[in-house]
Design a protein that fits this description.
Rossmann fold; about 300 residues; binds zinc ion
């Protein structure tokens, strides 16, 4: 029998519970230090930490179903175009900066296939909480190296990666940012690069809600609105946009340097009037950097 997990992937992995080295059992990966045995599903190691919040996971699964639910309503088309554009902007920037022959983690990869172009001349690991999304990437899009696990207990060795890509993930864990950034720093080698994108609390067309309103009220209003619109990108109740300035500040304190926000042209999740307004205001570079729907941060591990 060939090994159930590719050696090149195994070399990057560590136990999510104790950080120990993992080795092959007959049908599983086993931790040499704490003895925990982890399931491997069709080459995908499922490396969950202890006591993973099942309710939270169910919410994520619901979200995953919505994300894989293909047909978009006509009303959503303009917003979908902007989502597409935002992904193109992100991956173009990453490709330009990262070069070739690198080892890259795509943390919280979801079903976005933009990273697979990088996989042609780099080693790219797709990482997500939900195994079904990874199976879809593997079977439908040829993603070769996939790992299931939780962002707050990344099952990777110290300094394993040259770069981390992370899109629209951290607003799922708005209260754990310091821990998440510290673990990004841990798995990056010195000089490794983080490409972080998230929903921006300071977005031009959303800061009046995300910065000016109490968080609970914003959550309740937002939930009602998305239900009414039957919208495709419906946020889970614990999600909250993150603050570009705070994220930059926290990264600087978490072992990163050269922390900068990258200007972006796209503005998803708005209608014609919103786009026209953003179009005008984004003539100012400050708006493209700090007041986009998404912010994108480039940071180098010190
Ligand atoms: Zn262990």
């Amino acid at each position: 029998m060939t090994s159930i997990v590719e050696q090149k992937l195994l070399d990057l992995l560590a136990c999510p519970r104790c950080g120990g080295e993992l080795g092959h059992g007959k049908y599983s990966l086993n931790c040499f230090s704490c003895g925990t045995s982890y399931e491997v599903r069709g080459g995908i190691p499922v490396l969950m930490p202890e006591g993973i919040d099942i309710e939270h996971l169910a919410e994520e699964e619901k979200l995953g179903e919505i994300m894989t639910d293909e047909p978009a309503s006509a009303k959503d088309t303009r917003s979908e175009e902007q989502w597409e554009l935002s992904k193109i902007e992100y991956w173009d920037f990453v490709r330009e900066r990262v070069g070739t022959g690198k080892t890259i983690a795509n943390i919280g990869c979801g079903v976005d296939t933009g990273f697979l172009e990088l996989a042609a001349d780099n080693t790219v690991v797709a990482f997500d909480l939900m195994c079904p999304l990874l199976e879809k990437l593997r079977d439908g899009h040829g993603s070769a190296l996939n790992v299931a696990g939780a962002v707050h207990a990344l099952p990777f060795r110290n300094a394993a990666f040259d770069a981390i890509c992370c899109i629209d993930l951290i607003h799922h864990e708005p209260d754990r940012l310091a821990a998440i950034f510290a673990s990004f720093a841990r798995i990056l080698r010195p000089d490794g690069i983080l490409f972080l994108e998230d929903i921006n609390a300071w977005g031009l067309l959303q800061f009046w809600k995300s910065k000016m309103m109490p968080r609970r009220l914003h959550g309740a209003l937002r939930d009602g609105w998305h239900r009414m619109k039957r919208s495709k990108h419906r946020p889970a109740p614990y999600e909250f946009p993150t603050d570009v300035f705070k994220s930059m500040q926290m990264l600087s304190k978490s072992g990163f340097e050269d922390v900068e926000a990258v200007p972006l042209k796209s503005y998803p999740n708005t209608g014609k009037a919103g786009l026209a307004l953003y179009g005008k205001m984004s003539a100012a570079e400050r708006v493209r950097r700090y007041h986009n729907f998404h912010y994108m941060i480039y940071a180098r591990r010190a």
